[in-house]
Input
Amino acid sequence: MDIRDRIVERRRVKASELRPSPLNWRTHPDKQRQSLRAALDKIGWVGTIHVRPLPDGTLELIDGHLRAEELGDQIIEVAVTDLDEAEARYMLTTYDPIGQMAGLDEEKLNALAKELELDPATQGMLDELLGNTEPSDKKAATIDLTPQYGVIVKVPDESTQRQLLEQADAAGFEASAIVTGLAPDRKRESLPPPAPGVVRIVRETPIRRSVRVRQVEGMFDVPPESSAQRVWDYRLDLPAEWSVGLIVGPSGSGKSTLARELFGDRLIDGWPWPADASVVDGFPESLTIQEITGLLSSVGFSSPPGWLKPYHVLSNGEKFRVDVARTLAEQPDLAVIDEFTSVVDRTVAQIGSHAVQKAVRKSGRRLVAVSCHYDIAEWLEPDWMLDVQTGAITRRSLRRPQLEVVVRRADRSAWSLFRDHHYLSHDLARNATCFVAKVRGQPAAFLAVLSAPHPSHPRWRASRIVCLPDYQGIGVGGRLTDLIAAAYSATGKEFTVVTSHPALIARMAKSPRWRCIKGFHFASGITGTMGVAANSGLRQTASFVFSGTPDGELAENLGITKSKEA
Output
């Protein structure tokens, strides 16, 4: 708050007409009054005096009590503010203590004081402040044997204590005050009932008034409280039918509290995972392995080698997707995930959010994500979003931004980035032609093409199709496969894919660009694949041929065919 923004007008009034605040806690010794009078006589009235209007039309002082008292019937200009009683109380409490926290540049103040002719009272205060009086260690040591007497009187209340101190001052006695104990808790104002359709959440937390808590109260004049209370009012107008919701807001804004109030023990912030077993072993025993791997693939974690690793060795991005898949498995009707995408790279968070929302909608589930990151909203495409900071709730209006995928020809060394994520042999055929898809300038997916000469049916064959886990779930691998197939089809030869990956088989079976030429069949033993020996064990595979439109221009750009002009 800037006090200048709260000034509504300026008036010229008699200083004596201003009403002192009954809350003013400052006392003013005679030497201070003498210095102020000398300054007023020399340079006149200076500074702004802030006041606030009272219901009876009078003006109550917020600061400048001593100046107003000394100026008496003089006409002065005051700044009239719109501060309410609570704000005025705060300013009265903190204005002077904050000013007294300032430090002192003794050299500058000494230089200024020497240039001026000051009245004795002010000069004495400056000398005392600057230490210009004779140090006590240079004076002759004396022992004062004069008897000293004092009286400690216990009084029933603060008003009696104040009265006795004033009487002692008037009689010329030196008196001090002692205050012990705790002030009673301020009575909390009762809250008006919430408006119709508004959900009210009240949280009250007890405060243990430790030594350090009381020290902070004393340092910053914080009123002692036995508890802290916070109130949230939200108008939750959710659509009748929805699949994905988002509760978003800065840290400490009450997101988790609101989610827990609305969805109870559905709020999940993590799962226990076996330390020495693969992630697939951490899923409920009631699920089949097809259901588990299907869930993992649906949220964008389609790497069988990763499924076989313990949870603790996965990357943050992989852990995020595995946790989401586990939550969908444990809470199939409604999953509420706290700290959604909070520990992953922002690109991973956005791509992962899009993969998750697709999986939720496809499976008929419902998900509520609770996050402090606003950058996932467009990728999650929620049916409703509640911004806890503003209290505003919006219906589905966000659409995922377009993501540019750039395909480039690559040399064999690119395979080293992807080999550990492929489910078959890590070897690459000697005659492989390699391609990489990049997202936001970073390698995301890999595909190698092998020539499969046959006397009657010469064709091209895709090999080692793999997408890095951080980019799975948004179709990068499938898009790369479609583009390369279209380019190679421009050579007049067929382009085929043989795969045992369930997610890839499901995608190609639904795509109008691919035609299944051999359904599920078993491959076993040692199989030779274009010069690569792979021990496949016993696995089920399917074969597809590209039936989409050939792309001659792309084939030329990728160096698959030569330009006709050349």
Notes: The CA atoms of residues 444 and 549 lie 25 Å apart. The radius of gyration is 39 Å. The first helix runs from residue 30 to 43. Residues 198-234 form one domain.
